[in-house]
## 1
Amino acid sequence: MSASLPPAAAPFLGFARLLRRHAFAIAPEQITGFMQAITLLGPRSINDIREAALATLAPSPDRRSEFEAHFRAYFYGDAKPSIEGEEDDETRIKDDRGTREEEDPARRQEKGGELSSATEQLSSRDFQRDADGLGQFRRKLSAALPVRRSFRTARTRSHGTLDLRRSLSEIVSADGDIPSPLLRRREAVPRKLLLLIDVSGSMKLHTADYLKLAHAAVQGADRAEVFTFGTRLTRITSALRIRDREQALARAAALVDDWDGGTRMGPTLLAFLSVPHFSAFARGACLVMLSDALERGDHADLETAMRRLSARASRLSLATPLAGDPRFRPATSALRAILPVLDDLVDGSSLKGLTDFILSLGRHAPAADSIWKRVS
């Protein structure tokens, strides 16, 4: 896009890219609209550029002050804005269809939190095949997922609506005789399954099982997507489409760079939402997050991201291995903040429990908030 633009347009394109790097959800069509709006306005002043950006890039009300700070820093040369909740390191996003050019992030020293930390630590992981009984889960998954009514229709003999076009065609071909009415009804299709897997150090004991579960889900469901997150976001769906599990997990292990490192859950989920191609996977999906939700520091980004995911997904579930302890209660500030937007908060400490839960997604269940209030 930038190669075909005149040099004078480069600063405006650069501003849009700056906002996307800071997790603003901006689609390519909005950037095109921004450039067109500037063309129509002249512009006669810097305020015209600001108004065009507000109208086309449409920052949400809760991020308006952050938008204004970035605008002044970029166009007026003010100091780089200090935004509450912003991480020192930019969240890297990696799609398994290709990699992006990345820079070595600065390490940040923190006190405490032996297992849960925001410090990035890059390492590799090797998986071996073992028997775990996921074959039955793979075979049952497609039929067990909840369904939605598609806009596509199919012919039916009963319980449908009149197919007027085909009925009129039949009348004409029958020289005016009125045949039996022809009917159509909307098809029912399974909802998408989206798995977000925490690969940080605090989840080290469960990551291998979660990846095996993800491979079975991709093999068993027509539309399943899998991402890993820690200090980076990586899409590994294509790797898991390899039928042989050992090869698939080896390919996934090579794709993910942040095994067993720190976690920046809120910023990483906001990065997921900032990429339109990724956030579209969550629309109308059954979203299952496999994480302990141990967010370090301020949890404002996590709460914002979970609210946005809840608005997009048909069902938002958090499976945490901490719930395997009978004494577990959602008592951390982060869990208390996101509990009202969760449909499910379940035990993620065993493969058997996880597969049973995913196979039950098609059945109605009380909201997580009401269940855990009774337990507490």
## 2
Amino acid sequence: MGNVQILLRQHVGAPCAPCVEVGADVKKGTLIATPTGLGANIFSSVYGKVTEITDDRIIIEPAAEQPDEFVPIDVPEDASKLDMVKAAGIVGMGGAGFPTGVKLNINLAETPLAELDPEINPELPADFKLEHSYILVNAAECEPGLEHNIKQLVEQTDKVIRGVKYCMEMTHADKAIFAIKKKHHDAIKHLEAALKDEADISMHFLADIYPMGEERAVVRECLGVNLLPTQLPSAARSVVVNLETAAKVAEAIDEKKPCITKNLTVRGKLNGGNAAHVFMDVPVGVSVGELIEKAGGIDGKYGEIVMGGAFTGKSTTVEEPITKTTGGILVSVEFPDLHGANVGLLVCACGGSEDRMREIAEKMNGKVVSVCRCKQAIESKPGAPLKCLRPGNCPGQVKNNLQFKKDKCEYIIIGNCSDCSNTVMASGPKMGLKVFHQTDHVMRAVGHPLYRTLKISKEVSQDIDF
């Protein structure tokens, strides 16, 4: 194992402040950085010695021997479950990184249903109400090509369910629903068996389209409620937690284990083929390159390495470390060469930012001459990340395609969800626009269908007890 680099920002909020010095000996679970505002405790993931502290990371040289033991979180004997979650430094392990101790600090039993916008909820009656409060478990494995969430659900079903029950207890939710894609037959069988005596925990089946794991999409699919981009799931008397996050909650409460490891998928243009390599309980701070080598190494020339998912991930290098929120390491095929042709970018809240799409266009040797936004991509305030008005349920794109044509684009690069990509394809090619999706180079590398015309029904029905 090479040096472990623990980033000081692995969560929504401000970077943490180091509480160790260079030369300090550390163990698995030694507290090494604490929040300066909104954030979460950070711990050493290995036994070793602190060799350097920079503005953004703590570098640890691992010891030759790495015992399985860890330092338990430091909490009083009478600490509440919520205090244990906060002390353990758990964040949203699905990629969002919001501190879980903050998210679960709510009494859903006393939280009223917020006022719902009738324009995006036209089918709801005026007297609509939710009789129950919910923990909604995101088991969608939303980003294509990743498999670690489903593997954990199959292999650690009981731990995940324990974590869900703890989340229900802390938030006073009286129901829980696993939101899972219908295609995951094996995981569904495991869940069915484990939930047969759990009257208050059920499943809701999702279509295999992107972005079914987005928080408001989970609320909509499970509860039939559309929330505004500015509304949190609590507006629908619910809290959404990723299943890996739920498992970390169980570890913190049952074992007093700090959040020091991550499950992730390594996949793409690798020696031995493009099948998924799932690594469980990887020490936070291990390098991208080390995990790629464990998966077989890169097979020849490649385009880029993406940390995260193909839609929302970012390009990275082999030297960079994984964090609490890293879900995937994806090695792409080479980019096509557009030889300086005019390119239009269709920026969507469900995919990469404009900067990320410009990066992809540059790597394709394209000249960006036009930028449009999906009309449902909302900017809540200047400079804020875009939010989709109705994630996964999108309008037509004829107006944007006409603009691209007017701006003399030969190619367009889109970053849209499954449904939005479908609407682009309804008119773009007829106008002579050649379409690339920002995920194409990764989808080709992992053997996944390209995002173009939608070939699957968006509807997967299941009754919900309101």
